[in-house]
Amino acid sequence: TQSPDPVDPSSSYLTETVSPPDDTTPQAPETSDMTGSSTAANSSAAQQGTSGGSAATSSSPQGTTAKPPVTTARPPVTTAKPEPVYTPPESTEVPHALPSTGIYRVARMDPDVENILLIGLDTRNPYAFDGRSDCMIVFSFNKKTGDVKLISLLRDILVPISGHGWNRLNSAYAFGGAALCINTINDYFGLDIQKYATVNFACVVILIDKCGGVDLELTEVERQHIGGELQSLGNGKYHLNGNQAKAYMSDRSTIGADFDRTQRQRNVLMALYSKLMSEKKLSEILNIIESGFAYVRTNIPLNDLFSLATSVYSFGSSLKLSSDKIPCNGSFSFGYYNKMAIININRSSNIAYLKKIIWNK
């Protein structure tokens, strides 16, 4: 099946709307702020994405459908809703290790490489763990070589979601929680994820503050977006507390929109790692993990987190930490599908890219 020609975000969109494939189910209605995706169409990332021209789609694995055509009609303009007032539940205790029910068993491709999905939710309710997954980062650790990869999966990628047809990747969590999110990612991208850790915006603030904040280099645009009084460390570097770091990670005002935003999320994680390694003993890091465990929903037992942290810590300065994103350059285009702004990717190119950076295959 030949995939549709990439949509050039700099050109005028066509007015024809193409129907989805016959074997997909209707999408659940979703109201979302299109600003990030629309802004991304004008970014340098968009130019990189469309430079590859038309892309051929590989055959889909069992349980998925062929890549759908992309609609090109402009979506309706949505208006922002006022922030609701949240009432805390009778108990604010968050379950620690949640069961893996619903995550399909996938054998690990390399016994030395473990892939864990880090999920950040777009809810502002500190007591809720529902909604769409605003952030999805694959944490990949090779315990033999000491390689750690942080790979963002952009939320607007168009994927088939079991029981819900084609939709944006961030909808999978809203439809079926971490299990459906992981199953969708494993199936479409050829990964072997079995474990996850989920936080929401409010929990991120608490966890960063428990680490003592984070030190980051900021552009002038980023500094102005965060606002307020920032502690300058000189040479464009600033010390950010939890709230300031959250504002930095959620910023989509720059020309790269979601591409820049996901890079900022990875920047925070890498800066936290550097801070902890340079300032904390292993026992102190384990104490931070234990105290922060109540603010994370995960299917990883606390003792396993201790073991993982100890293994990462043992590499010291020899650990090789890097970050990346999917879709890779030259493998995607922007468009609209069912009135949603989406990223249409060349699936086979991105599967091959993931195999190379995670397993060196």
Number of helices, where a helix is a run of at least 4 consecutive DSSP H or I residues: 10
Tell me the strand percentage band: 15-25%
* Beta strands, count: 13
**Distance, first to last CA:** 26 Å
Give the helix/strand class.
alpha+beta
Largest sheet: 6 strands, mixed
Percent helix, as a range, is 25-40%
- Global geometry: globular
Strand order of the largest sheet: 10-6-1-2-3-11
The ordered string of helix (H) and strand (E) elements is HHEEEEEHEHEHEEHHHEHEEEH
How much is the radius of gyration in Å? 20 Å
Give the integer mean of the pLDDT values. Answer: 79
Query: Segments where pLDDT lies below 50 for 5+ residues?
Result: 1-48, 50-65, 83-99
Descriptive notes:
By secondary structure, the chain is of the alpha+beta class. It contains ten helices and 13 strands. 33% of the residues lie in helices and 20% in strands. The strands form four sheets. It has a six-stranded mixed β-sheet, sandwiched between helices. Strands 7-9-8 form a three-stranded antiparallel β-sheet. A two-stranded antiparallel ribbon has the order 4-5. α4 (201-210) crosses α6 (242-250) and α8 runs antiparallel to α9 (302-314). The radius of gyration is 20 Å and the shape is globular. It starts with 34 loop residues before the first helix and ends with a helix.
